[in-house]
Amino acid sequence: MGTLFKYTGHSGHVYSLAWSPDAQRLVSASRDGTAQIWDTNTGQRLANLAGHSGKVGGVAWSPNGRWIAAGVDDNFALVADAASGQPILTYQGHSASVSCVAWSPDSTRVASGSLDSTAQVWNASTGQQLASYKGHPSGSPEMKNIAGMPGMPPAGAAPGAPGMPGAANPYMPQMPNMPQNPYMPQQPGMQPNPYMPQMAQQPAMPQNPYMPQMPTAPNMPQNPYANMPNIAAMQNPAYAAQWAAQAMAAASARPARIMGIAWSPDGRYVVSAGPDAHVWDAATGQKLSSFSGHTSYLTSVSWSPDGSRIATASGDKTVQLWNAGNGQLIGSYTGHAAQVLSVSWSPDGRRVASASFDRTVHVWDGSNGQHLFAYTAHTDAVNAVAWSPDGSRIASASFDQTVHIWSPA
Q1: Cα 100 from Cα 115, distance rounded (Å)
Q2: Which tens digits make up the pLDDT trace of 42-72?
Q3: In this predicted model, what pLDDT tens digit does every residue of 203-217 receive, in sequence order?
Q4: Which of 351, 329, 70, 118 has the alpha carbon at shortest distance from 314?
Q5: What residues does each domain of the chain span?
Q6: pTM for this prediction
Q7: 391 vs 73, 331, 343, 353, CA distance in Å?
Q8: Fold (topology level) of 2-137+256-407
């Protein structure tokens, strides 16, 4: 195991990558606003993906090798020619940033996930929408966990509703009554200091004609911290419970963010990852099953090559493996020290690679979760990982602005 090549063509965090089917090229998308197509043997840049002005979030190479799909911050997805990077069509079905894209096995359709809480399937030649899935719940797994803690209101409780705790929050220590400082006179009725001459009343200052008046800022956004309760207010159990309920209600109303998407090997189903993972029919958009074992938001999803298992990565530092047929949890990988940001099956379905905020990529056995080795050459969080189509190499993209190609052997 070791680094075979390091690509340094980006000037910002690298978010995503995809191999060409022949493993001779790779496309990588970065915070620098570019998606670059380059030779995996020499590092020579061959083309830049055109047709967008915003950041490219997710990229995917079509199985036939002819096209690249990309999701961008401009609220649309596009299909570009893989040789030139020139756009062929754009898909306008989303109303927010498109975070992830995936090609169907026959290269005729693209599935895209968005921050608008939807996952959609569309025709790669015409841009026609074929299916739309809106089944992911709003909110986050973290808020569900907080709702179950002692001293916290139940999930969905409105301020003042039955079930509000009457006892003090056990996670907020009570502030003791502070004794009066005998050397600090009381504020009300304070007597003037006889040794301090009184300041004369100052006349009103004239307006400086050379200092322009500050204009009133139009549409100034509300300070989100303006209504935070102070410590004294938080000691009141009823107020603390009310504020917690309001915070949870606001968080629960946030739309789901679809951060990962993948096709089943037979092209019949799609799995999308948001607060949880859902499998749905690619033709009708009908939900078939869901996986809800993580305690934090999902960041990535990958379907095994034989179609039997689904891997989900999460901010809870774990990767979980699921039975794709019945939705049952098979096992969890807990080897990372921070959020897991990407997961990818090896082409033979025997191993899994997972990339983490802990700056490492772990390779482990997909049948029993046994850790095999860790790749530690990146100097910052690793945001994406992908096996080459022949399984001989792994590419990993990092916040350190590089893409590494390395041998998993």
Answers
A1: 10
A2: 999 999 999 998 889 899 999 999 999 999 9
A3: 454 454 444 444 444
A4: 329
A5: 2-137+256-407, 139-155+231-254
A6: 0.75
A7: 32, 23, 15, 11
A8: Methylamine Dehydrogenase; Chain H (2.130.10)
Q: Which residue has the tokens 């907020």?
A: 172
Query: CA-to-CA distance for 394 and 329, rounded, in angstroms?
Result: 27
